[in-house]
DNA sequence: AATGAATGAGGATTCATTCAT
DNA sequence: AATGAATGAATCCTCATTCAT
């Protein structure tokens, strides 16, 4: 009627990005089931129906949001990881980054663990591929370690991967339920140590090796600061 | 009207058990959200309302079902575990049993992982306590191993626990999504080995020599930066 | 089994009284719909089924509770009212008592107004009879007042009754919704005065003269219309 | 499946009006608790869910229905009331209209008395405001009467209001329970008389005044008919 | 491309009342 | 007389998705 129709026509990319930003917020705040499409639409400044032009459905939207988060993480990590040398340093770095990612985005982490990964179609999704790329850094690390003789050749690289990410996930569940925190630095050290040396008590040589290992870690942590000066 | 009121009066214990059995079936087959109370009631041979005399609500019912499953597992394991001697044997036994439990009851496992553990109230539930008892066997094992000198004293027992159950869980997600199986025997062996020996190659004299060299170089490089501050 | 069944066997009268006391509490606290039989049973120290030995159903229970309240009120008022002399004093007394009753038992009052009086069967209930007796004191008072010449003979006693109790009820709705109080003394005075003297200013000779003039004019204007029909 | 999705898109105003019309019918026929949303939806030619786009919930719907009824009454009365002159005529008019409203819409009246007015939130509702406007006409009338000397200045206008509407309500409860009728004309006369003159027997002047008053009423009732010819 | 009204399936839960024990 | 387990009907509301405009 007399009411003017204010149709803001943004570029599709921008529109899509707005929706994803809004969705990430709402999913993070409310969780998947409690998040409602109309609120996402409202925050994105679009109408409910418009979301369906860009995303197949609510689940698809969640997948896309999570994918973009993974892509962010991977692209952030990549350059830094490239600068870290030494098998054990790199391993600790990956562990530390993952602990940080969960600490910074517990809500998104929980969404992935609870709603995406259990999805029967999960394996066919892009998120699965991204996650694979993300976790495969450990697999490759192990392979390289085997090649250069630092890692014994009879371990399953994928089992190492599952062990590391499984341990982290298990360890952080309390935090994901908002029940207390954890210190990524300490935990990364402990976990790296445990994975690399195992439980068994060993002879002297190993003790020395471990001491060296700790020194290496300390230096690695100092290097960026020193380089920045 | 013409409907006869057939009131069968069973012992409360029996009635409760019937409902739980039916619920376990339906939850396993359908998952939590898709399970409907009326079907559980029907299979249990009761009327919907009767379920609510024994269980507060659907979620409570799921918790109770899961608890009884855990109790079963714990009471089944206990005598056998008591008969297994040797730290590493016992560790392998626990790992193997857990792998078997998931393999035998993937649906219940998924329910716990997906619906119960993420519950904000989880920590206050009996299921949490049971799960703690269940996983604590690893913690105790580590402590004993430390005491008798088989395990090095500087590992965090709870981190070992998280590592083991995390690794198992991560490893079995594909199976939980019905995407292929795994061999509990092999996997238990691999995991026990990995946890106990770690990744490192045993003889590392050369490695150490090289590492020491690197450290010396690194320290030399750091000294100017430290001096500049 | 080994559990001893503690069946306390009280006199039926006592049992009935306990239930009514509990019911009055629960109804008062929760209102009719929100009151649940199991809570009444619990507070009365009986089992749900037992209530139905003494009362036909929930509604019947509410009626009985209300009846006993009315009986209390009537028997409390009676002796005092007998001691009050003079039509206007007695009228004021009745009004004041009713205002006090509502002030003391707003919850019971609301139950009667909201759930009992609108009942299609209300007129057949004992509560109706009691209420009639309760309010009829006004009717009788008016009749007596007419007889002794204090009240003009052309008023409908029942209309006076409805006016008084209606006015009180209307006036107290805010209080019944827990929205503020009222002062029974002042209000009783005002109401008695208003009912007895009405709205009109006393000396109206001039008014009458003016009215008569208007009437003459009106009739003059009407005559043509009447003639036209 | 094979069900065709027939989407009829009406103007929101029309749709809302349809729902309210249907709701008024169903609420009137069944009462609040017995009215079911699905029947309202069906009669309105919409789907249940659609009702919730226009009304927050069942209670809100009832409030809106009642509000529209009040608005109708007020807007119907207004022009006629403006045409009626003289304090006592106007008073009788208001009383008469209210008696007629209840007589015409006993079911809606009962809904208001039983479900809306007792609502703890009632005072915050639009219905309360409307009702206040509706009944305030009496308050204003009294104030005007005091100003022009027809009404004694020491009465509480709001008490007069409560007395009138309370009396009407009390008087009509039997009818609201479907137990017999009443004659609005007679009752309006009686009530006006009682309110204006009170109970007390007075001297001759008042008798004359009353006779004049009755004549005025008779003429007032004749005027519309005469004017319409 | 955008709108946003309409769809419509879907299910947990409550609780007064009964009646076998 | 007392118990209390069993009954089972009954319904409001949500919200992802569609599609006419």
UniProtKB/TrEMBL annotation, chains A, B, C, D:
This is DNA-binding transcriptional regulator, AcrR family. GO terms for molecular function: DNA-binding transcription factor activity; transcription cis-regulatory region binding. Residues 36-55 bind DNA. Keywords: DNA-binding, Repressor, Transcription, Transcription regulation. InterPro entries: Homeodomain-like_sf, HTH-type_TetR-like_transc_reg, HTH_TetR, KstR2_TetR_C, Tet_transcr_reg_TetR-rel_C_sf. Residues 13-73 form the HTH tetR-type domain. It holds the Pfam family TetR_N.
């Amino acid at each position: 009627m007399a009411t003017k129709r204010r149709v803001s026509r943004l570029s599709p990319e921008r529109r899509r990005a707005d929706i994803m930003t809004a969705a990430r917020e709402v999913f993070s705040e409310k969780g998947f089931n409690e998040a409602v499409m109309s609120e996402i639409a409202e925050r994105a400044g679009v109408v409910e129906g418009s979301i369906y032009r860009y995303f197949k459905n609510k689940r698809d939207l969640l997948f896309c949001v999570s994918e973009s988060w993974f892509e962010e993480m991977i692209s952030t990590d990549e350059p830094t990881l490239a600068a870290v040398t030494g098998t054990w340093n790199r391993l600790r770095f990956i562990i530390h980054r993952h602990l940080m990612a969960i600490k910074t985005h517990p809500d998104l982490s929980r969404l992935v663990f609870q709603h995406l990964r259990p999805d029967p179609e999960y394996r066919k999704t892009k998120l699965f591929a991204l996650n694979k790329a993300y976790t495969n850094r450990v697999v490759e690390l192990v392979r390289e370690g085997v090649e250069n003789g630092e890692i014994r050749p009879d371990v399953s690289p994928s089992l190492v991967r599952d062990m590391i990410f499984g341990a982290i996930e298990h360890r952080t569940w309390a935090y994901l339920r908002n029940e207390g925190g954890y210190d990524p630095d300490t935990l990364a050290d402990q976990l790296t140590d445990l994975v690399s040396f195992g439980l068994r008590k060993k002879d002297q040589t190993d003790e020395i090796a471990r001491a060296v290992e700790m020194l290496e870690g300390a230096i690695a942590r100092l290097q960026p600061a020193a380089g920045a000066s």
